[in-house]
Structure formats: structure tokens, C-alpha cells
User: Fold this.
Amino acid sequence: MSDKKHFDLIVNIPLEEELNAFLNVFDNKENCSNDSQYRCTDHTSTGVTMLVVVQDEMGKSSASNSATEALNEFSCDLLICLGIAGGLSKDLKLGDVCYSGNVLDVNDNA
Assistant:
């Protein structure tokens, strides 16, 4: 059994705009930030516990690094990465859900 603090969800968010939209829906309960990463806990009305993690910049590598850092300290049932597809199509809006079998990251593949 792990001695890590457990959350139902860890939500990985790349941009401040996306974080602000997310926090408009959920209440920020506790600051769990460390020296390199902004993190806060959120709770839903159904009792689901979430750790919100903010990436240091956009991109696939940053998302991976951010998620890895959070998972080194915390455990979860599901990790969700938000906001990584905004440049796919002009008809995507904040809150839309999309799926892709392949993701090419212009930051990593430049």
C-alpha cells in the first residue's frame, strides 16, 4: 500500500486561461504547490477529490514532466490532461472534448 496522498483525479492544465476557466467551476480548497509546480485541491459536490496541476509551459514534454512530478508525490485513479488540442481546429471551443490517435507537438518536433 502506498503512503502517497490519494486523489480520485489529477487534472493537468497547461495554460492560466484554462486554469481560470476550470477554477470557475470548481472551488480551490487547498494549495499543495511546491517550488516548481502550482497545485491545488478541488472537490466536487459528489465528493470526488481532485488535484489540479499547472504545467510550466505548453507542449507534450511539459505535460509529461508535470504529470510525472505529480505522480511521484501523489496517487490517483485517473489522470486527465486538459487543453492540449486548442490549435487543432478553429471550431473547437473551451470545454470541447476531442480525441486523436496521434499527436504531433510543434514544440517538441520543431
The beta strands are 5-13, 27-31, 38-43, 49-54, 74-81. The chain has one domain: 5-81. The chain has a mean pLDDT of 79.
